Amino acid sequence: xxxxxxxxxxxxxxxxxxxxxxxxxxxxxxxxxxxxxxxxxxxxxxxxxxxxxxxxxxxxxxxxxxxxxxxxxxxxxxxxxxxxxxxxxxxxxxxxxxxxxxxxxxxxxxxxxxxxxxxxxxxxxxxxxxxxxxxxxxxxxxxxxxxxxxxxxxxxxxxxxxxxxxxxxxxxxxxxxxxxxxxxxxxxxxxxxxxxxxxxxxxxxxxxxxxxxxxxxxxxxxxxxxxxxxxxxxxxxxxxxxxxxxxxxxxxxxxxxxxxxxxxxxxxxxxxxxxxxxxxxxxxxxxxxxxxxxxxxxxxxxxxxxxxxxxxxxxxxxxxxxxxxxxxxxxxxxxxxxxxxxxxxxxxxxxxxxxxxxxxxxxxxxxxxxxxxxxxxxxxxxxxxxxxxxxxxxxxxxxxxxxxxxxxxxxxxxxxxxxxxxxxxxxxxxxxxxxxxxxxxxxxxxxxxxxxxxxxxxxxxxxxxxxxxxxxxxxxxxxxxxxxxxxxxxxxxxxxxxxxxxxxxxxxxxxxxxxxxxxxxxxxxxxxxxxxxxxxxxxxxxxxxxxxxxxxxxxxxxxxxxxxxxxxxxxx
Length: 572
Prior knowledge:
By secondary structure, the protein is an alpha/beta fold. It has 19 helices and 11 strands. It has helices at 4-41, 44-65, 72-111, 124-161, 168-171, 174-194, 201-222, 230-260, 308-322, 338-344, 358-363, 378-383, 400-409, 427-430, 435-444, 462-474, 505-510, 524-529, 553-566, and strands at residues 266-272, 277-283, 292-297, 300-304, 328-333, 350-355, 393-397, 414-420, 445-454, 479-487, 491-499.
């Protein structure tokens, strides 16, 4: 016969397991919401840290508010089902608000028969947009409050379990509550990183909410005699279950439809990878011309098919033309193979391409067939002309900051180095714009070679642009210069070019009588004019800081520059 003490142990362990699962769900909601907010807000680093900050604050608020709940059994049971309802629908609610903010001007134009060039702005339009932009933080506050209530309520439930036991002081250790909560949160974080990060986001939300719903039901059956309004609670569980089934069935379709409204063109391909969100859109500009494809990473434009040749010509041509040879080339980033396509025009003997995201490289290298046999990424493969499958190319996957170490240990040298990385818009990218990283590249560059670095917009992010140039110079390059050009999809864009010995890149290019290779864009005049800036452009150069490893200077400059330019999260 089972003793009372053994029953207390089993009940206590079950309650702790429920707490652990709830903690794991809470961590997944935190990551999921920050991940999705970065996608819709177009400011990934701001959203991630902003959502986490808001949730942490309101978890504390929830802990205080838990004291107002007189019946911890009813409180916890209702808490889990409400978490399931809000957690499962949060992504769809936020996406719906953003879709509404995008549709609102169109609705007004159709209602009042306004011309296409007179899109409504200001007033209610701004208010609706602000509500949409604030919604991820509002949902984070609500979820954080509910998650924060879990530990205090469970602590009271455990106190009730052992209130008649002589060993209660030992059994009711607060350490066991926080210990199991931390472990559960860690397991939830691991599941997110290993499995859910690459899932369709509404599906991930529904799976997490299902766990909340199931532990809530388990808790209900354990303590049903102490829970008030049991019929209403079960009816709410049934409602939540129906909602979850609908989200499992239609959530991906709903989420995709609302995401499509965030882009001005039709979304034709989307996929989550462990590292980023890939989106391809299509626009018809002329029925007799090919459609325009635009490629986005985490909501940021990477290229548009109608003008990417300008960007990639300006990225690759000056450094290759300034190098004494083009036999061995290193490309860092550029997993789409477009810069590689232009490099292969120079007939190199070998090219090493370093990129982090295997799924991105696969998208631009291997045909992806739909169920009816259509190659979905055919246009992308055609854009880079199969460059990633060229036998002269070695693709190395991994963090470039670490993988260049292997090249250094192997004693490799490259005639030209092309750094085509995303802007330093995230702390993880900051190290790839540091003096330490550029010093590594200095060791890989041949004495008469040249290196070029994608350096963001000198117009929209002037401080970042100048800081990159100063940082490259601080790394030990003898000559460092910067140049710019207009790329319609991006606006004014800039690059930094450096040599380690002999003449500067600009001097080498000026010595050319004609351009050495015809690529359909570059001329000698375009090449040399790109190095000219306005007379006051560098007037604040001395005040701009160098980006050392761990300093976050490039990231902070980039965040401040673009925030000032586009007014992120302005609620005035």
